[in-house]
Amino acid sequence: MDRTPVWFMRQAGRFLPEYRAIREHHSLLEICAQPDLAARVALLPVHQLGVDAAILFADIMLPLIPMGIDLEFSPDEGPVIHNPVRASQDIARLRAFQPDEELAHVLEAVRILRAELPLDVPLIGFAGAPFTVASYMVEGGPSRHYLATKSLMLSEPTLWHTLMEKLTDVLSAYLLGQVRAGAQAIQLFDSWVGALSPEDYRQFVAPYSAAILQSLAKTGVPRIHFGTGTGSLLEDLQAAGGDVIGLDWRTPLDQARRRLGPTVAIQGNLDPAVMLAPLPVLERRVLEVLSKAGGRPGHIFNLGHGIYPETPVENVRAVVEIVQAYRANLATNTEA
User: Fold this and answer.
1) Residue 127 contacts residue 60 (beta carbons within 8 Å)
2) Is 258 a catalytic residue?
3) Is residue 10 annotated as part of the catalytic site, yes or no?
4) Most buried of 95, 97, 166, 303 (most Cβ within 10 A)?
5) Which domains does the chain possess?
6) Quick one: which of 136, 168, 133, 155 has its CA closest to 87?
7) Is pLDDT above 80 for 77?
8) 40 catalytic, yes or no?
């Protein structure tokens, strides 16, 4: 591709009227459980917005269900876990499983998508990283301070490492199953890892993310390693692995490129709130991100996190068009 590719996290989400219509009749878990419907949702932004990649429609919490977690999605609170994992007996009860059996519906959605997508539109699979998934399991849902998670990590390190080992095995197998089914790239979402200090990240988290990313290395698929609030962790994320480091909006893209060096690609990093701005402001901010990338290869345009439900569809479409025109305009200006 001779231009900067663009896709968006949550690009098949609630900002699309067609998706909202589907959600009137189906819960998130019901959509994920029906491969044809999940594939249909994942295809919406490809057909309507012209993004350069499709991402599997699933949720990072799905592997927890066959592990024995009682999970529901509350309209107001997001994921709610009714049996949080906080003691040795809770961790002992977590069971391993075969993704080809227990998550067969997700892998079937991958196969359907790969068969229906144009050859030049790659399919991105994904999973939550062990820390982010563990934080949901321990807290019982979303958290602002991760007090229960950090308490387990610091006061019961043996239990913490046991939990992380179990998650690493499950998530590695799940991602490898996605690749076998046809995913052509993988993103590891460590959405909440920015809550940690570099020291705690290196001691309690990095070895497990690294093990997952290393397990994928032999497949040859590109690996995107993403987190939010990771300005103090970029070099540590790079050391843990990944061909692409995903950035949120808090770290200027040009600074991140200097820190990470030329051997790793970068993804990001528009603030998703900017997507609600007037079009002239939005265009200026998009061009600022592209300018910081310097027109060099190794940049994937994305947001610093997922699209907000309130985002106007026309704004998302405008961003795609701006990004896709940028490299062509840059080449024309250079030749002139």
Assistant:
1) yes
2) no
3) yes
4) 303
5) 17-335 (3.20.20.210)
6) 155
7) no
8) no
